[in-house]
Design goal:
Helices cover about 90% and strands about 0% of the residues. It contains one helix and no strands. It has one helix spanning about 5-90. It starts with a helix and ends in a 10-residue tail after the last helix.
């Protein structure tokens, strides 16, 4: 074989290998993009669950705060009534400030 034949064979093999490499890169890139898309959707779903959990906790804290305010108002009312009753008695039932 002559030198030109070797060069033609080398060019032919090179073009086939390059074409295969380009196709392989495209396939790998598509697979990677698909996998990244799946991971992104999964992450967004989990993030949504966390956000919903925080919303539920916030609502629960609001209910607890309202309940505590109602209890404190009730206790203050009862204490005021008790103090008024105690101060209404003569000696023996004095309420003193510390």
């Amino acid at each position: 074989m002559e030198e030109n034949d070797f060069k033609r064979i080398e060019q032919l093999v090179s073009s086939v290998v390059d074409a295969k490499l380009v196709q392989h890169r495209k396939d790998v890139n598509e697979d990677f993009q698909h996998h990244v898309g799946i991971l992104t959707e999964d992450f967004q779903h989990k993030l949504q669950l966390v956000a919903e959990g925080h919303q539920m906790l916030s609502e629960k804290l609001d209910r607890v705060e309202d309940s505590l305010e109602n209890k404190m108002d009730s206790i203050a009312t009862e204490l005021a009534a008790h103090r008024a009753d105690t101060e209404g008695h003569k000696r023996g039932y004095l309420v003193r400030e510390p």
